[in-house]
Write a structure and sequence with these properties.
Elements: E1 5-15, H1 55-67, E2 71-72, E3 75-76, E4 79-82, E5 92-95, E6 102-109, E7 114-125, E8 129-133, E9 136-140, E10 147-153, H2 160-177, E11 189-198, E12 208-213, H3 216-235, E13 243-248, E14 253-259, E15 269-270, E16 277-278, H4 281-289, H5 295-306, H6 310-318, H7 320-332, H8 338-347, H9 352-359, H10 366-379, H11 381-388, H12 395-406, H13 412-420
Parallel strand pairs: 12-13
Antiparallel strand pairs: 1-10, 1-11, 2-6, 3-16, 4-5, 4-15, 6-7, 7-10, 8-9, 11-12, 13-14
Helix pairs in contact: 2-3, 5-6, 6-7, 7-8, 10-12, 10-13, 12-13
């Protein structure tokens, strides 16, 4: 048995789908756009440019915080987080430090019933993007200033699988609430994991941050690789260095990037150009009432209402459009079992119109069915007797003969009833 217990905390960055950037009027839709075409003096950090807070972004974070059972701060503010890097033209990032929008949330992972504490959910501006071309590194400022929500958890995870379960629900929740498409391939959801190993389950005095995680598979591999690396160090009675590391998919190992900073290194202080924000309870209540159904609630409802298999529920909740199709189809096709409708949507990828066409069969009348059954029994007396005596395999043959006479319009249950007599 392994004597080391992994202690894992998460930082999840999600770009919000707002109409404008966080502190200016530029478009936030930066993916695959011509570099440096969606900028202004504010997001370029030019001297004298004054930022103004995006109300839509603030509301999005509050909705997300409510969904994750957070307390909402009625008094909040923005702060300057100082560090020098080419993707940060001002030399600081406008973020939130001691008074975030949301804090002290809780979320239960359904599969394991593990309760995860959410430390905080705050709002900040995204940085520019570095583009590496051979020996040159260029800067694209289109992403600079995009509204970025950051969710930070307590170190409550102990394996990569539970991390994945939680993060998939975070991604789905962002989509259900309409605050972001959280597309990892486009960089609108980015993950960081803080990993330590403990012998007693208590948090040790160090943590290693794995950055630039761009897929769930990448994350699982990176976490497992870092756990293995730390185990090898601790087994030799050596000390694990607190640092930031990346993960190389080719070598399947993590690599050192830089020594990890502490909060004091960022020299936080209140943002002087943006006044503090007060949020009253009426606003919070209205946002709470506007929340759409969340993934975990939808899964429970699908199970209770339609009695669907676990894998069907998972597939449907993971695809909002497909789930909407399913529920509309169930409503319109009352004579067809929900599981059968789900099967057609999931496995045959049929839309409602095709399902209705397939399922709305004009069945033969009771008289026509009875007549066909009698004729088949008369023509196949021995087969019918064998069926009545328990040879179930003959049933398919008899039904086939009856359906031939009815040109496929026989209702199976009525045919079976006729054959039993």
């Amino acid at each position: 048995m392994n004597k080391y217990i992994p202690i894992i905390g998460l930082e999840v960055h999600i770009e919000l789908s707002t109409k404008t950037k966080m502190f200016c009027g530029c478009s936030p839709d930066h993916f695959a756009k011509t570099p440096n075409t969606q900028t202004c003096p504010v997001c370029l950090g030019l001297p004298g440019a004054l930022p103004f807070a995006n109300k839509e972004a603030i509301n999005s974070v509050i909705k997300f915080g409510v969904a994750f059972n957070c307390q909402i701060n009625e008094f909040t503010k923005f702060d300057r987080k100082h560090y020098f890097y080419p993707d940060l033209p001002k030399g600081y990032q406008i973020s939130q430090y001691d008074l975030p929008l949301c804090l002290k949330g809780k979320y239960e992972i359904e599969k394991t019933k593990t309760l995860i504490d959410i430390t905080r959910i705050h709002l900040e501006e995204d940085t520019a993007k570095l583009v590496h071309q051979g020996k040159k590194t260029l800067v694209d400022f289109n992403r600079s200033g995009v509204a970025l929500m950051e969710l930070v958890t307590e170190p409550d995870f102990h394996d990569a699988e539970s991390v994945t379960s939680f993060l998939k629900d975070v991604q789905l929740s962002a989509r259900y609430l309409g605050v972001s498409n959280a597309d990892m391939e486009k960089g609108s959801m980015r993950l960081e994991a803080n990993i330590s190993l403990s012998t007693d389950g208590k948090l040790p005095d160090y943590k290693v941050e794995i950055k630039n995680i761009n897929s769930f598979k990448f994350m699982v591999n990176a976490i497992n690789a870092e756990i293995k690396r730390q185990e090898e160090i601790l087994i030799k009675d050596e000390r694990v260095v607190q640092e930031t590391r990346g993960y190389n998919e080719q070598t399947q190992k993590t690599f050192s990037q830089r020594t990890k900073e502490e909060a004091k290194d960022y020299r936080y202080f209140p943002e002087p150009d943006i006044p503090p924000i007060r949020i009253n309870q009426d606003e919070i209540s209205k946002l709470k009432e506007s929340l759409s159904e969340l993934p975990k609630d939808k899964r429970k409802r699908l199970k209770d209402k339609y009695n669907l298999p676990e894998d069907y529920m998972e597939i449907l909740t993971n695809d909002i459009e497909k789930c909407d199709y399913f529920e509309k189809a169930v409503k319109e096709i009352k004579d067809f079992r929900p599981k059968a409708i789900a099967d057609l949507i999931i496995n045959k990828k049929l839309d409602i119109a095709k399902i209705i066409k397939l399922t709305k069969v004009e069945y033969a009348s009771a008289e026509e069915t009875q007549k066909a059954v009698k004729e088949v029994i008369e023509e196949n007396k021995k087969a019918h007797e064998d069926y009545k005596n328990g040879k179930e395999q003959i049933l398919g043959f008899l039904i086939g003969q009856i359906q031939k006479k009815l040109k496929g319009k026989g209702e199976i249950n009525k045919i079976k009833e006729g054959l039993i007599v």
